[in-house]
Design a protein that fits this description.
31% of the residues lie in helices and 25% in strands. The chain is of the alpha/beta class and 249 residues long. The strands form two sheets. The protein has a six-stranded mixed beta sheet with strand order 6-7-8-3-9-10. Strands 2-1-4-5 form a four-stranded antiparallel beta sheet, with helices on one face.
């Protein structure tokens, strides 16, 4: 990956220190979708138990309909389980109301999607600082933290550029910087190289590996065996259950 600025270590800031307890702990998680008449349409998850600890690099895999998207939505606090307990950073997420859960999600989780989801009218720096604006962080601190994260992903020389002026790989690195700017306890990525060519995708995966080496916990949904094999643990779902859960390191 081309270098445009010196590396900034993810672990250099004390605000990025992670706790020693599990980042995510799911116990007996079920998710049922119902028809309007109250009958079961699909049982997407059927009793899932997963614990993810600090600094793990986990791939979640499974065929269409296996439950992996539902699992990722629950892990990301974008959806609630029908039953079971989900502790995120030690907090039982199911006990939070919608407003508190939204705030908690913004503080604890950084999301990276296949689509970059950048705001075309904003500069790179402004895009990265958007989550901090919604958290009420003072402008001076927003700028400092956004620039530090852009330096981390080697885009310190693109602060005033708009998304349309960047390549796909650069846009995804902006999205990663935006995901990191809140100092989350976990980075969740959903097919983050899906819209990129192989060379650019390789650069993004190298960046993820660097982030993991420096302490970040990463959970990635992927359908690609080669990408999953670069993670340190693979969880494969089938018919709403964990088919296997194995460590590669």
């Amino acid at each position: 990956m081309p270098r445009s600025a010196p590396h900034t270590s993810l672990t250099a800031s004390p605000t990025l220190t992670k706790p020693d307890h599990p980042v995510a702990a799911l116990t007996g998680i079920t998710k049922i979708y119902y028809k309007p008449d109250g009958t079961i349409m699909v049982e997407a998850l059927r009793g899932v138990d997963i614990t993810i600890r600090t600094n793990e690099y986990v791939a979640i895999m499974g065929a269409s309909g296996s439950g992996k998207s539902t699992l990722m939505n629950i892990l990301g606090c974008l959806d609630r389980p029908t039953a079971g307990q989900y502790l995120l950073d030690g907090v039982p997420s199911q006990e939070l109301d919608d407003e508190a859960l939204s705030k908690f999600r913004g503080q604890k989780i950084g999301f990276v999607f296949q689509a970059f989801n950048l705001i075309a009218q904003l500069t790179v720096e402004e895009n990265v600082s958007v989550p901090l604006f919604y958290q009420g962080v003072h402008k001076h601190e927003r700028v400092q933290r956004a620039r530090a994260c852009l330096e981390l992903v080697d885009l310190a020389d693109r602060l005033d550029h708009r998304p349309r002026e960047l390549s796909g790989g650069q846009q995804q690195r902006v999205a990663i910087a935006r995901a990191l700017v809140t100092n989350p306890v976990v980075l969740m990525a959903d097919e983050p190289t899906g819209n990129l060519d192989s060379k650019t995708g390789e650069a993004i995966l190298t960046l993820f590996e660097r982030l993991h080496d420096e302490g970040m916990t990463i959970i990635m949904v992927t359908h690609d065996d080669d990408i999953a094999d670069r993670c340190h643990r693979i969880i494969r779902l089938k018919d709403g259950l964990v088919e296997y859960d194995r460590s590669l390191r």
